[in-house]
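Predict the holo structure. Ligand: orotidine-5'-monophosphate.
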Amino acid sequence: MTPQSQTPEPFGARLRRAMDTRGPLCVGIDPHASLLADWGLSDDVAGLERFTHTVVEALAGQVAVLKPQSAFFERFGSRGLAVLERAVADAREAGALVLMDAKRGDIGSTMAAYASAYLDPAAPLFSDAVTVSPYLGYGSLRPALELARASGTGVFVLALTSNPEGAEVQHALRADGSSVAATVLEHLRAENAGAAPMGSYGAVVGATLGDTLGAAGADLAINGPLLAPGIGAQGATAADLPKVFGAAVRDVVPNVSRAVLRGGPDIAALRAGAARFADEVREAVESAVAAG
Ligand SMILES: O=C(O)c1cc(=O)[nH]c(=O)n1[C@@H]1O[C@H](COP(=O)(O)O)[C@@H](O)[C@H]1O
């Protein structure tokens, strides 16, 4: 990677500041073909570009985190990736942190290349953080964890995903009786130990999981951020957050994609939709914290 003249501020510190000033909401940039159609756009690169540019213009000055889902850009090949590159740069320029949702995971030597694609400051898709999958073994993520440390970026590791199919792998019990997901969380706790105000290594834990976390023996106190997708289109609400996350609710970065994006293409409507979810999240977190 590019040599750094000075140690960059860690992602965890940058994220905590953004959460404190803008609120913790993350909005996903997920240009589904159906959303392009709803917005009156063509399902091609021009439609993708217009959609993405509108979302960035509407929300990059307002929300803490924007999370482009790479698959929706990859389906258009190199021209789709060019749209993604510009969106990442524009969103960061406007003050949002960009979490690239790429869910990468591979053997360590290949993981190093994925890490450079998103976490090397010289890379065209350089982002503030990236989502990764630990299901080739947590240790295979080491190159990404190390590059994140060096470049002041973050890594969000899938632990307990929002989809119902995730449980067959994530709740599975290891020989010592701990669940696979609890083991992932344990690794993250060790990674973030001693970091203040919080570590740069997050977990993805679905807001849809209700009270099933107990079944996975999941201890969410990892001293790092907890990305919580599933609010809106997948049925969870802001009011579910304290139930799912308990005392860790202060570290939750709730994600909403379709339920905000459906408000477009009107910029004011997109902003109002995000603001409504942000208010609901703030209310839910504040009342949970007040209740102790
Ligand atoms: O890592 C993610 O972002 C993610 C993890 C997970 O467990 N569930 C999940 O839905 N996501 C992503 O979060 C977004 C949810 O979108 P909506 O259901 O439209 O709000 C999509 O981009 C998913 O790929």
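Residues 41 and 47 are 5 Å apart (CA to CA). The domain at 11-285 is CATH 3.20.20.70 (TIM Barrel).
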